[in-house]
């Protein structure tokens, strides 16, 4: 059952994000390309390729909200972006991301390789690090502070963030809203969620999660997204204990939600 707001909820502001260990997190989750991430990469790659093939346009600005210690959402946006903002709250993760901009670690090559199965990525050349260095910058900030940037970015990603920062359902939905409101009308987006997560470790420290499934993800998107899909991954392999699967959502920012008050 989804955990709704309650007096004993652990809120995002109460979490010690400085204790997040990005090195341990990358080692556990991204040292090798796991089946779940390969499936995600194929889905979002095809979504972005399809969008820009039909709509044209570019170069554009992109944002990865709550980038954490994960580079592959930025890599997925890179062919079409003149700038990509890695927006992250944890000082430890900000430091990790900054260390990757000039020349990211070799473990990320396998993720780029999965993307390069489509020529839109392969056409960037043998080593994408030069382009990554040129277009990517890191910005420290709170997801909930994105309200001041409404409509700024032309494409966006948010991976394992809104449900992985709080136990509070209202904060989860507000996090999704903040992400989508930061995108321009018609912007393509992709987001991923841990299904029914009970929380997780990043190194020695435990971090909270909000228990959500496909219906909650879909409900959080409906007011701000159009023509979107919510898809549970086919892969059943578990990258850690304490969740039941992964969910990917992708689509486009609505052209208007003027009747919805900003929270």
UniProtKB/TrEMBL annotation:
GO MF annotation terms: methyltransferase activity
Gene3D superfamilies: Vaccinia Virus protein VP39
Any GO BP annotation: methylation
Pfam families per record: NNMT_PNMT_TEMT
InterPro entries recorded: NNMT_TEMT_trans, SAM-dependent_MTases_sf
SUPFAM superfamilies, A to Z: S-adenosyl-L-methionine-dependent methyltransferases (SSF53335)
Keyword annotations from UniProtKB, A to Z: Methyltransferase, S-adenosyl-L-methionine, Transferase
PANTHER family in UniProt: NICOTINAMIDE N-METHYLTRANSFERASE, NNMT/PNMT/TEMT FAMILY MEMBER
NCBIfam families xref list: SCO2525_fam
Protein name: Methyltransferase
Lineage, broadest ranks: Bacteria, Bacillati, Actinomycetota, Actinomycetes, Kitasatosporales
